[in-house]
Amino acid sequence: MKYIDKLEKTSKKNNSLLCIGLDSDYHKLPRFLLDNRYPQFAFNKAIIDATYDLVAAYKPNSAFYEVQGEHGILQLKMTCEYIRAKYRFIPVILDAKRGDIGESNDRYDRFAFEYLGVDAITLHPYLGSEALEPFLKHADKMCYILCRTSNAGAGEFQDLKTGNIPLYQVVAKHISDSWNKNKNCGLVVGATYAREIKIVRKLAPSLQLLIPGVGAQGGDLKKAVQYAMDKSGEGFVINASRSIIFASNDEDFAKRAREEALKLRDQINYFRKGGK
Amino acid sequence: MKYIDKLEKTSKKNNSLLCIGLDSDYHKLPRFLLDNRYPQFAFNKAIIDATYDLVAAYKPNSAFYEVQGEHGILQLKMTCEYIRAKYRFIPVILDAKRGDIGESNDRYDRFAFEYLGVDAITLHPYLGSEALEPFLKHADKMCYILCRTSNAGAGEFQDLKTGNIPLYQVVAKHISDSWNKNKNCGLVVGATYAREIKIVRKLAPSLQLLIPGVGAQGGDLKKAVQYAMDKSGEGFVINASRSIIFASNDEDFAKRAREEALKLRDQINYFRKGGK
To answer: pTM, whole model, 2 decimals?
Structure first.
């Protein structure tokens, strides 16, 4: 099933535009899990089983598995397989921020979509659409391209004026106007830059937005939601990672993650409906 | 030992500015290696043992190991460890083209510099220096930032005029002027854009350049070398991957790789000395 169809089905069923980021840092896991042969997977499994009816998507961040070496990569795969096997309509976004020339992208593409079997990936725009063709050719997947990132120093290049408009806006417009032939492009825009979300939504009225930066990074949820909505009141997911998955570091971590996920899902919905 | 000291020592000893790219695609390996439990490692080991006295550096491309999943990651690690153990002064550049926010970059950093133990990494500039700080803080490593990539469509964003100058030049200048406090920044500039190498060298007179795109991609070696040289006639490495490592697909693959490496090393030196 296409990413976009999975996303629609799951977000309707769960009444949710919440994406939970599985940034499952080994060193932040509850200590009692560390005896497990696959502690990152055991942690993810518990989080997923506790939140599957509250999410629109899951987003494992590749960095936190790679740092554990081949054993981390295996647990990333186990996590993706677990979601696919048990919760088959929940889409999985691999947050990998890849971007190379075509020959290498073909391999990154197969890592994401064949080995891991995910439904979407995050990508860098810098090499242009010609280089990203191995990803862009999959009409059933989603390519979330970095547009305006959530970090404090994002503006160093992203705000550079090209002609009269900042680079991140050129990226948004290019992708909306000419990369999206297969209707499989989305944009990453940080909630820490609410004003920029509003501008990006105007430039790219029909693209899916992936919005990190609420929770631990402190973005403004209300503005992020209200600016990110497309005409149908959807067209985006809000990602939170640490504020949900590490809400507790104790036996109750999954229960506490569920409470935080429920709260955030409901806040997103409240703001979608015009709540102040 | 610092990357830059390893590079100097090895390039002097081997009279070489050649970097061999270990893009060791499983599906292109000689068939008789496929029975090996670690075919990518076995292949790399043979290539390295046949060329160690001809190179300035090796550059494994992460994509070709990731696509093989956890078993590929392990072989990437085995390759890096093998070079470090047997040829301790040959620097290893991880071609990973990473770039995320700080928290995630910290994990990618540890994947590269602790788990794999490499000496340098390739990075995307899009998120700015604040995000790349986990990499930039290592004065003993090298951060090769993508500036002008070798692919045909590189200009889509990289040639956008910001003020009066194209984005890739702004990137070169920013990195040269303000990112290089620890003298550990370099730039990736494709040999397929010789004119751009000349401009980048002017903007960044003392930065190390990593130049892919000769060999299979067809860049102009003579111009690349002559434009890339700093005042001392050095300051760069030329990377070739497929044209060397896959010169033969038979029992003689390592011998043929050595012949191609020798030829290219000598061509680079010929052009360094003003050869036409």
So the answer is: 0.98
